[in-house]
From TrEMBL:
The lineage of its organism: Bacteria, Pseudomonadati, Pseudomonadota, Betaproteobacteria, Neisseriales. PANTHER family: DNA-BIDING PHAGE PROTEIN (PTHR46558:SF4), TRACRIPTIONAL REGULATORY PROTEIN-RELATED-RELATED (PTHR46558). Keywords: DNA-binding. Pfam families: HTH_3 (PF01381). SMART domains: HTH_XRE (SM00530). This is Helix-turn-helix transcriptional regulator. It comes from the Bacteria.
Length: 113
């Protein structure tokens, strides 16, 4: 599994340059480039910084990497992706809104049963 593919994908989804992601993740542009191209490994620290920049967990980045590997043409196959992989592709403000909506739906469901 290539974690760099997921990092590249998430960065592009947000419209960020490598320099912008590097700034958000407290690293250098060359580190981002090397990660995306699979030219270097990753440390737990850089993964934490990247996850924070993307507004997700490290495990969600790995899940997305796995899904991207399974589905070559993500635009046609996004319907088959797990909800976690879809969720982290959204901007954080939409994630927060959906999170609150899901909590509300669960509370309503639990009251009815």
């Amino acid at each position: 599994m290539n974690i760099g593919t997921a990092i590249h994908y998430l960065r592009k989804q947000r419209g960020w340059t490598q320099q912008q992601l590097a700034d958000f993740a407290n690293t250098s542009k060359s580190n981002i480039s090397n990660l995306e191209n699979g030219n270097q490994g990753y440390s737990p620290a850089i993964l934490q910084y990247l996850a924070k920049a993307f507004g997700c967990s490290v495990s969600q980045i790995f899940l997305l990497a796995e899904q991207l590997e399974k589905h070559e043409d993500i635009q046609k196959n996004w319907q088959n992706m797990p909800i976690d992989s879809l969720f982290i592709q959204l901007p954080s403000e939409i994630q927060n809104t959906l999170h609150q909506l899901i909590i509300s739906l669960i509370q309503t469901h639990n009251k009815n049963y």
